[in-house]
Amino acid sequence: GESVGLHLPTLSVQEGDNSIINCAYSNSASDYFIWYKQESGKGPQFIIDIRSNMDKRQGQRVTVLLNKTVKHLSLQIAATQPGDSAVYFCAGMYSGGGADGLTFGKGTHLIIQP
Amino acid sequence: DTAVSQTPKYLVTQMGNDKSIKCEQNLGHDTMYWYKQDSKKFLKIMFSYNNKELIINETVPNRFSPKSPDKAHLNLHINSLELGDSAVYFCASSQVPNTEAFFGQGTRLTVV
Known about the structure:
The structure holds 2 protein chains of 2 kinds. By secondary structure, chain A is mainly beta. Chain A has strands spanning 4-6, 10-14, 19-25, 32-38, 45-51, 56-58, 62-67, 72-77, 86-93, 103-104, 108-113.
């Protein structure tokens, strides 16, 4: 099975600074990864995804880096804003393995300080 | 319009009761899921359902059963509720299996 975990449960950054959230996974067969953002009282919301044939993907203010050698991925958020405060989850799966859904990490609570 | 909607949003019930949570998606997706999020925010898949194929996480007690009347709905039935069932339950859907999943707002179940 897949095991996806995060290094830090809580990350506190100053508004305007960049933040980096890290994630490690154990199943080397995983080939698809997603970062989700969950605000209080809401469901997880898709931020960005990356497939194993890539090592970097950029979105609006977010960048995901994938290092398959060490089975690690990270989410970089540029110029953090108060609205970025949330719990961030990485999730992984083997896309050819049947309808078994995503395996989620434990989540990192990102706190933006004014 | 809400893409994935669950009802109720909050559910408080006594131990031993049987309850259901409904889920509907209007995205035309083929695959639906149920996840359980515990008090530590850990999300764990319970079921996935695709074209009438049900895949069950083996750790889920058989008191939990999904019911899919059609492709747009996947309801969760829970029998003989226990205190440990208290959690937030999320429904989700994806176009095809193992791609980006869209989540509902969650149902907070409290068993007393």
